[in-house]
Design brief:
1908 residues; alpha/beta; 7-stranded parallel β-sheet; 6-stranded antiparallel barrel; 49 strands; 12% strand; globular
Length: 1908
């Protein structure tokens, strides 16, 4: 071999080589190896497959990248996930990825560095080579060789190499062997020397003992199990092993082989059991031959072989049972006896409950032990570990394997195919969105919406999908990351729509905060009840193995059971309370058997007496109760005796645990009969009214005085906090919800609509003027009344959407079906332990439901949920409009439900939103709604976090409250689910006595975690021959014995137990089916011997045979049999006809799908009260008659779980008087139990193809019923003969023979009534049984007197009162024909369209009735305005919209100036651009600014991220960098395997010089085609630029500023596309300087924040002084409370208020001088002015200010005219000014805008009028007034007048300082503090003063004068 071969480079310590793999995105597993770190990745890159350099090997150029650093060909593993495994200080990073890159291996001793050599600890090149070994080709054939043609060959594993490897630690051996490329070839060898076999066995056994290299060991076992070495070489070696003479070597060889076999079988039990079994046989044969030869086999070896044999047998048994699949190794096995195995596996206390990302890998398989049921456990730690692992695997196996399969399928299938695929392990939901947060008492929950289209086949009311407590996992990135949550609410009606409520786990909730809103997830569900699992798993982890109660029996299985510890001091018991008839029994020593009273005294049979004695005298008692034997009765006797002697166990609590809520209620109701106080039932789903007051939920709501003061105070505080937060969050949620319940009002959307679109939207303000209650947005969306008609017409002629029937309308009417308690419903009821919703929260919800109505009214322009009849509507009109409204609502709902919204780019390009098509209008509206909802969500996030913290505190208080209540109880009742949830409370309460009912159905782990260390007495009551515990994973139940309960296990281990043997339920014919087939003996109590026979049948027990095939139910792969369902339903109806009560009949079935089938066949009106259940949910129940449908019947002859005796036992033992089964006996007969049962039935002819029905009225009539149709031969429960019973009415009963109502008291005669109703001889039209009507309803022809028309009128009705239906023939005043009917008044509004002449002078088409209306009430003129505005653009409004030219619509011409932030201005036609309202795009590597662009950005204060190996920056992110750019080329390798074309420290470009040559070398600057050119990829736009030219380009502005001293303030742009450069580390200094300058400009535009705040507060303070509406007040307040106010915003508000104030003063003057009746027209103009002033689009532009001022001048002159005319009339001088008045009115009322010339002319006219009238307000002449003023010698501003215009004077400064009464009218005059009293004002008519003399500035609020 050539030493020092060129071209190989290994890179340790952080340098980069060429070629190889890119593993930056690879997942890593780091393994520590003697201080060296080796990065091994599986990546996508190209490159040669690198192998380890073994001893004597020479490094080539492609090389390694070790230590996590990058070589130019090594692996990139920087972003890989790591799993660290320690091996004596060494660390090996193993990455995973895809592609065909190099696979690296460790360099062994003797490897020599190549041309560039190794880099070890900073050494490089030749120096490294000098440190290398040079003996590569001389050492055992190891190392890499050159082929004849120079190609490199993989290194081999020679004997010497193997010897060297064997000297290393186990971890190093495992890693080396598993990763060595020659290992697979070595294991393929089938002809191997003996010493090499022994050495390889030594190496493998040593590798298998590696402690912390589980993945590596699994990989090695995978290579080994199917290899030639394992299946050929090793068997040959074992066959000749007996010849080995060296005992030391023999022992070592045997141990090595046993370790190898054990490990391979443990890791791959299914696929290796055959080979291991063969090798074990050979091994045992060799050992036997050695023994015969006198060779001593060490005991340790023999014991290991024996354990291996047990393991093989266990796996083979599973294989024989058909539950072990050879091609699928699901688990690794754990053995409690394998030396050191406990240390090898992770300690179960540290295993996380949720699956980790590593567990979701395809090759991840957990290690499990089987539940030991045939012998004791080795120790308590192994016992706890076993049950923890089984429970955890039961919870997570389906989830883990389902996600693995889903990930695999996502790579192979497209989305459509994936949604159609069914997954066996998990339930998958697509297009999942996380909705609004919901505040519940115990958590912060979230609404979830998922796509229900792929789940149309699911029947949700019966489905077990998404039940309460189920675990779900959500992911948006193919489960690279995920969120865990549990279902907290599931309403079947909502889940049908794809809506549920979930609560995230703590960790996932933190992750949720960082996930983008509206992210789409895939959700998978495992149906396991997570909450119960979680609490049990936590309990197992926390259980101290040294303090576990009853270890002696549970772990050690000791059959010598001691008495309870509390009886050791005193065993004197008093059983008087449980004696029969309260007989007197003296206290006795209970531990002395001879001292016990006789069983007759206690009212018990022999077995019950034994059970009582066992329960009271043994600390662990087991009582088996077959069906009907009274185990609950005995349990209550035991509880009664214990409670009456409670002082023996220190008055502690008794804990009663049951598997189901029903059993718990039953048991506690029994205790209640002798213990009226002291019971606490924990659980929220009790159906018992007797126990209601004992429920924990009720007790927590009891008198607060019973609670400790600290708890009461704490609850009060936390409730107040939660209610406050809930109110706020609910308010926000209601706003979000309202946004989906209809069309949002335009005022609500104002903040999310751009200014130009807002102005454009309100161009139709004329519509608002005509109908103030309408919303302009409805008109824009075509939803106003004419628009609706138009939309209906369009839909009729178009797509028909509006008129299309909804799904509800298309569904035919169906009869209500019987409500069957579905299995899913029962499971959910058992899961819900406690609903912690208190009354206050419910009241809050009621409040919000009420409040939402008010909110919707204020927020929605159209509410889609309103459907109320208006008072003025007739019923017919309401119904007709209701139909139209429903069609419209369906259309709107379809639009709102669409996800497609307009993009912001499209929005920006829109000039006129009224010009959009209706489709685009809806898309734009949806964009606005999205923005509105996003703003609300952002504000809610901190509230949610605060609420969750409050919830956590609340839950802690609930724990304390529960503990306080339970500690005061005598009996605590819980289900197993409740016991797991309240486990920690129970550990604090420490009950001493625990009774477990239905113990044989409870998983062992549940019982373990229920027990506290204080427990001294455990009583298990159940029957393991009925139902057993069920697990989610059947494999665990079957193969790992998880389905064996503690009850059954301890009975099997021989612990003392008593079986009750006298049944009190079933008649003997039924009981005989159980004995001896299931129970060896079962005695019948005398009470069951005298039951009545079942009516209508000839037998009380029967099995109906058939061979009709079943079908499989798609949802859960359950089964249904339609034939059986129809038969059972028909049979049930037959029994009901025999007058059995529905409550006496139960239908049982063995499959949930059959429940669904039965449900569809059972109308509620026929079967109400009949109970229908699956067998598993009916244990512990009984009924008189049971109909059993067994379902299974198929060609494969599969009976499913009908071969399980436990379930069969339950099914056959529920009936008391009658049991009737239907099934395929031929197929079931292959099961021995059923075969025996059929044999028993045949003995009394109780099985056959047909059931015999017997008529009770005709004994000779019998029907053989083999199918449902046969019951038609007994249609009414009798036979087909007629009844012939004579009724009281004289008619004969026409029914066929019926078994019910034999006296016919309830019979209704259906023949026609023969009674005469009226003198005309009309007969009653009703049936005989009905009451005849009082008035004759027969219709006859009559003449209507009013119109002489002939009509069909009811016989009894006077034609005068009848409304004629003939169309009206009258002609309206307008000449058109009336369109009403004759009997109704003629229409008042003619709807014929004619040409109208409008008041403005224009003509247009309109309805005829407008002719009769006043001009101002007519339609809006639609003639285009077109007047040139101040901005020189033409007005785009119409004559009507512009108020006949007085107020023009705001100009909508786009500004499009470039703002300082580089965005275009979106404001329409503005002289000064406002701050940009787009989202700020400034960002850095740390964060992104979330403000609007025009608002100030907070500088990033994180450390600068611009770092590389050569340079680093020490500044903060927002500061200019203090380091120069690095111009060194990047030495990384791209994913394609080619060198990066970027620069050191910069982000690598996505393009490659080789792969994308044309794009990279495209000439722009001129330097791009240089082979050494390096490029930057601009992150903002993605363009590639050559770095030297870009540096020059970026420096241009700096040079310009240096030379000229000035610089344009703007961001530099991409030279190719002009996109602003915001995010780039290299040019960060330039960007930061530009941004700093931009921030200064922003501040100047927006104004000083301090000044703005002062003005804002002043406005808020003075706002109440203005006479504005409450709505306007709220609107302005909302604006002033908004963040980011500018001086422009405040200027607009001030102008708005100023105009309002001046208008109010005008009105005040007019009101004081004239009556309101005379100013109606003036008031309308005032209202119109205020409407324009208050419109949202009012920005007081130059044009708007001009229009408003002109109109205000017109209104001022009009007001002066009104006042002047009023005074002239009072003086009788009106005739003097008639001509001037007419001129004024004509000019003021003319159409078009009031001009300045008009104003000047009218002012002159007004002066003439004043001169003629001599109006001063003083009833004196002008001359007299001048004389008075002159005489007072006061400057102007001292004259005032009272509210009634009486003039007075204030001397001195002229300011009002005191109040008096007017001597003429007694009104208040003067004032205080220089402010006039209300109604007083300056008397301008006296001296012409406009302001008071004391201070003109301070009295600006006083009215100036009429000349505004």
């Amino acid at each position: 071999m050539e030493r020092g071969a060129r071209g190989f480079n290994s890179n340790f310590g952080g340098l980069r080589g060429r070629g190889g793999w890119r593993g930056a995105e690879n997942r890593r597993r780091s393994q520590s190896c003697q201080g060296r770190e080796l990065a091994v990745g599986r990546g996508r890159g190209g490159g040669a497959r690198g192998e380890p350099l073994m001893e004597g090997e020479v490094g080539g150029e492609c090389g390694w990248n070790c230590g996590g650093l990058r070589g130019r060909g090594g692996w990139r593993g920087a972003e890989d996930r790591r799993q660290s495994q320690s091996c004596q200080g060494r660390e090996l990073a193993v990455g995973r990825g895809r592609g065909g890159g190099a696979r690296g291996y460790p360099l062994m001793e003797g490897a020599v560095g190549g041309e560039r050599g190794w880099n070890l600890g900073g050494l490089r090149g030749k120096e490294a080579r000098r440190r290398g070994h040079t003996s590569g080709d001389r050492r055992g054939g190891g190392g890499e060789r050159q082929g004849r043609n120079g190609e490199r060959q993989a290194p081999q594993l020679g004997f010497k190499t193997l010897q060297d490897i064997s000297k290393q630690e186990p971890s190093a051996v495992a890693i080396t062997l598993s990763l060595h490329p020659a290992m697979p070839d070595l294991l393929k060898e089938t002809n191997m020397e003996k010493n090499r076999v022994e050495l390889l066995c030594l190496l493998l056994s040593k590798a298998f003992t590696a402690k912390n290299n589980r993945s590596t060991v699994q990989h090695l076992a995978r290579l080994l199990k199917d290899s030639g070495f394992f299946r050929t070489t090793l068997p040959h070696y074992l066959a000749g092993m007996w010849s080995e003479s060296n005992p030391v070597r023999r022992k070592q060889e045997l141990e090595n082989i046993v370790v190898i076999l054990t490990q391979v079988l443990t890791i791959f039990p299914a696929s290796s059991v055959e080979a291991v079994g063969l090798l074990l046989t050979l091994l045992q044969a060799s050992m036997n031959r050695l023994k015969k030869a006198g060779v001593n086999i060490p005991a340790q070896v023999a014991e290991s072989v024996e354990k291996l044999e047990d393991l093989v047998k266990h796996v083979q048994d599973r294989s024989c049972e058909g539950t072990l699949h050879p091609g699928r190794d699901t688990y690794s096995l754990l053995h409690s006896d394998v030396p050191g195995e406990e240390e090898e596996q992770p300690i179960f206390r540290n295993i996380p409950i949720f699956p980790t990302p590593e567990e979701l890998e395809e090759d991840s398989r957990p290690s499990l032990r089987s539940n030991i049921i045939s012998k004791r456990y080795t120790n308590t730690l192994i016992y706890l570990d076993t049950h923890f692992r089984l429970m955890r695997e039961d919870l997570l196996r389906d989830l883990r394997e389902g996600i693995q399969l889903l990930r695999q399928n996502r790579m192979e299938l497209d989305d459509t195919e994936l949604k159609k695929k069914r997954f066996d392990d998990v339930l998958v939901y697509f297009d999942v969105k996380i909705g609004l947060p919901r505040c519940i008492r115990t958590n912060l929950a979230y609404d979830i919406q998922f796509d229900v289209q792929p789940l149309k086949f699911v029947r949700w009311e019966n489905s077990k999908r998404l039940l309460y407590g189920s675990l779900v996992c959500l992911s948006s990135d193919n489960f690279e990351s995920f969120l865990y949550a549990t279902v907290v609410d599931r309403d079947p009606k909502q889940v049908e729509k794809g809506k549920i409520l979930i609560a995230f786990t703590d960790d996932s909730r933190l992750k949720l905060a960082g996930i983008e809103k509206d992210q789409v997830f895939v959700m998978v569900e495992t149906p396991a009840y997570f909450e119960a699992y979680r609490h049990v798993l936590e309990g197992l982890q926390e259980q101290d193995e040294n303090d576990m109660p009853f270890q002696r029996y549970i772990v050690e299985c000791n059959t010598d059971v001691h008495p309870p510890a509390y009886l050791q001091e005193n065993d004197l018991y008093n059983l008087k309370s449980i004696t029969l008839h309260k007989l007197r029994v003296l206290p006795f020593h209970i531990l002395k058997e001879e001292a016990w009273p006789r069983q007759e005294v206690l009212g018990l049979d022999e077995s019950q007496m034994q059970a009582l004695r066992l329960a009271l005298t043994k600390e662990l008692a087991i009582i088996q109760g077959p069906p009907g034997t009274g185990k609950t009765h005995v349990g209550l006797k035991i509880a009664h005796a214990l409670l009456d002697n409670r002082e023996h166990w220190n008055d502690s609590q008794m804990l009663v645990v049951c598997f189901t809520n029903h059993a718990l209620d039953q048991f506690l109701e029994g205790i209640l009969t002798f213990l009226p106080k002291g019971i606490v039932r924990v659980g929220g789903r009790s159906n018992s009214e007797l126990l209601k007051s004992f429920n924990l939920r009720e007790l927590t709501r009891g008198p607060s005085s019973e609670m400790p003061l600290y708890l009461r105070n704490a609850f009060r505080d936390i409730h107040s906090k939660m209610d406050e937060l809930n109110t706020t969050i609910q308010h926000q949620n209601r706003r979000l919800q309202c946004s989906l319940n209809g069309i949002l009002a335009d005022s609500i959307l104002e903040n999310v609509i751009s200014q130009n679109h807002w102005d454009s939207l309100h161009q139709h303000l004329g519509y608002q003027k005509r109908n103030p209650k309408s919303s302009v947005i409805l008109e824009w969306l075509g939803l106003h009344s004419p628009g609706i008609l138009q939309m209906e017409t369009e839909d009729t002629n178009g797509d028909g959407l509006l008129g299309a029937a909804t799904d509800d309308e298309m569904v035919p009417w169906q009869q209500d079906l019987l409500h069957i308690v579905e299995e899913a419903e029962m499971i959910q009821a058992d899961r819900i332990v406690d609903d912690n919703t208190d009354l206050k929260f419910r009241r809050n919800m009621a409040y919000w439901q009420c409040h939402s109505g008010f909110m919707q009214e204020s927020m929605l322009a159209m509410n889609l949920k309103e459907d109320q009849r208006k008072p003025e509507q007739s019923e017919e009109e309401w119904k007709y409009q209701g139909q139209q409204k429903r069609k419209m609502i369906n259309k709107i709902k379809r639009e709102l439900s669409k996800s497609e919204a307009m993009s912001e780019e499209e929005e920006t390009n829109i000039l006129h939103i009224w010009a959009l098509s209706m489709q685009d209008r809806w898309r734009l509206y949806r964009l606005w709604v999205v923005r509105y909802r996003a703003n609300i969500r952002t504000s809610t996030v901190p509230l949610e976090d605060e609420y969750q913290q409050a919830v956590d505190r609340y839950n802690e208080l609930k724990h304390e409250q529960t503990r306080f209540i339970l500690q005061r109880a005598k009996v605590i009742g819980m289900t197993t689910t409740g016991a797991s949830k309240f486990r920690k409370v129970l550990q604090d309460v420490r009950p001493r006595v625990v009774i477990v009912e239905e113990a044989a159905e409870v998983l062992e782990a549940h019982i373990i975690t229920t027990l506290s260390q204080a427990c001294q007495h455990l009583i298990l009551i159940g029957d393991h021959q009925q139902l057993r515990p069920t697990s989610t994973v059947y494999d665990l139940e079957k193969n790992y014995k998880m389905g064996v309960s503690m009850f059954e296990r301890l009975v099997g281990m021989g612990l003392p137990f008593v079986r009750l043997n006298q049944q009190h339920r079933m008649r003997p014919e039924i009981a005989r089916l159980l004995t001896p087939n299931i129970y060896s003996d079962l005695e019948n109590h005398p009470s069951v011997l005298n039951f009545d026979d079942i009516r209508g049948l000839n037998t009380n027990v029967f099995f109906v045979e058939h061979n009709e095939l079943e079908t499989q139910f798609k949802e859960d792969r359950s089964h249904q049999n339609l034939h059986e369902a129809q038969f059972v339903v028909a049979f049930c109806r037959y029994l009901l006809l025999q007058e059995y009560k529905p409550e006496q009949i139960t239908i049982l079935t063995t499959y949930t799908a059959q429940l669904h089938c039965l449900h569809k066949l059972m109308p509620v009106n026929l079967f109400k009260g009949v109970r229908v259940h699956v067998v598993d949910k009916y244990q512990g129940e009984e009924n008189d008659i049971v109909l059993l449908s067994l379902v299974r019947s198929n060609t494969q002859r599969k009976v499913g779980f009908l071969n399980i005796s436990n379930r069969v036992c339950v099914a056959l033992s529920r009936a008391k008087k009658g049991l009737y089964c239907i099934g395929n006996s031929e197929m079931l007969g292959q099961v021995q139990l059923w075969k025996n049962t059929f044999q028993t039935l045949k003995e009394k002819d109780q099985i056959g193809r047909a059931l015999t029905l017997c008529c009770q009225n005709h004994a000779e009539s019998k029907v053989e019923a083999s199918c449902a149709d046969d019951f038609k031969q007994a249609p009414e429960g009798g036979c087909t003969k007629p009844c012939e019973f004579r009724l009281d009415c004289g008619h004969v009963c026409e029914s066929v023979c019926h078994s019910y109502n034999k006296e016919h008291q309830k019979y209704q005669c259906l023949k026609n009534c023969e009674k005469i109703l009226c003198p005309l001889g009309h007969k009653c039209p009703l049936k005989c049984f009905a009451d005849c009507p009082k008035d004759c309803p027969i219709r006859i022809e009559k003449i209507i007197p009013k119109c002489q028309h002939k009509q069909m009128v009811p016989c009894h009705q006077d034609p005068e009162e009848f409304i004629c239906k003939v169309p009206c023939q009258k002609t309206l005043l307008c000449g058109h024909r009336c369109d009403s009917i004759c009997g109704n008044p003629c229409t008042s509004k003619c709807m014929v369209k004619v040409m109208l002449q409008l008041s403005c002078g224009h003509n247009q088409l309109g309805f005829c009735f407008y002719k009769t209306m006043k001009h101002d009430e007519g339609p809006l003129c639609m003639t285009s305005c077109g007047q040139q505005l101040k901005c020189n653009h033409a007005c785009r409004g119409t004559c009507g919209q512009c108020n006949n030219g007085r107020f023009h619509l705001s100009c909508n011409h786009q500004c499009k100036r470039l703002l300082i932030c580089s965005h275009e201005c979106t404001e329409p036609c503005t002289s000064s651009c406002p701050p940009c309202d787009k989202p700020c795009e400034n960002c850095c590597v740390h964060s992104k600014c979330m403000n609007k662009c025009g608002q100030p950005c907070a500088p990033c204060n994180e450390p600068c991220a611009w770092q590389c190996v050569h340079q680093s920056c020490s500044k903060l992110c927002h500061e200019p960098c203090d380091r120069p750019p690095c111009d060194q080329p990047c030495i990384l390798t791209l994913t394609c395997g080619h060198p990066c074309i970027g620069l050191c420290g910069e982000k690598c470009p996505s393009k490659c010089r080789i792969c994308h040559e044309d794009e990279v070398t495209e000439i722009f600057f001129g330097t791009e085609d240089d082979p050494k050119a390096c490029f930057l990829q601009l992150e903002d736009c993605g363009h590639l630029v050559e770095h030297t030219s870009m540096d020059t380009y970026m420096a241009i502005d700096d040079e310009l500023q240096a030379s000229e001293g000035q610089l344009a303030i703007k961001l530099k742009e991409c030279p190719k596309c002009r996109t602003p450069i915001r995010k780039n580390l290299r040019y960060g200094s330039h960007i930061n300087r530009s941004l700093a300058a931009i921030e200064m400009v922003k501040t100047k535009i927006r104004g000083s924040q301090g000044s703005i705040e002062i003005q804002r507060l002043e406005l808020l303070d003075t706002l109440l002084s203005y006479k504005i509406s409450s709505f306007k007040y709220m609107e302005i307040t909302t604006i002033l409370e908004r963040k980011g106010l500018t001086t422009t915003d405040l200027w607009v508000i001030k102008n708005n208020l100023n105009f309002i104030d001046r208008i109010e003063k005008l009105l005040s003057v007019v009101r004081q001088n004239t009556g309101l009746t005379n100013i109606c027209e003036f008031k309308k103009s005032i209202d119109n002015f205020l409407l324009w002033n208050n419109q949202p689009s009012q920005k007081f532009t130059e044009q708007q200010m001009f229009d408003m001022q002109m109109e205000l001048q017109r209104l001022t002159l009009w007001a002066e005219l009104i006042v002047l005319c009023s005074r002239a009339e009072k003086k009788g001088k009106h005739s003097l000014i008639e001509s001037e008045t007419q001129i004024m009115k004509e000019t003021l009322g003319k159409h078009g805008q009031f001009t300045e010339q008009d104003g000047k002319r009218l002012k002159d006219v007004m002066e003439e009028m004043k001169q003629k009238v001599s109006v001063t307000g003083l009833e004196i002449s002008e001359e007299e007034k001048k004389m008075i003023v002159k005489a007072m010698k006061l400057q102007p501003g001292h004259w005032y007048k009272c509210p009634n215009n009486h003039v007075y004077i204030i001397t001195e400064c002229g300011g009002a300082m005191e109040a008096r009464q007017c001597p003429d009218c007694k009104a208040t005059i003067g004032g205080s503090s220089h402010r006039l009293a209300d109604g007083n004002q300056v008397a301008s008519e006296m001296d012409g003063a406009q302001h008071a003399a004391w201070s003109e500035a301070n009295n600006l609020n006083n009215f100036e004068d009429l000349h505004l």
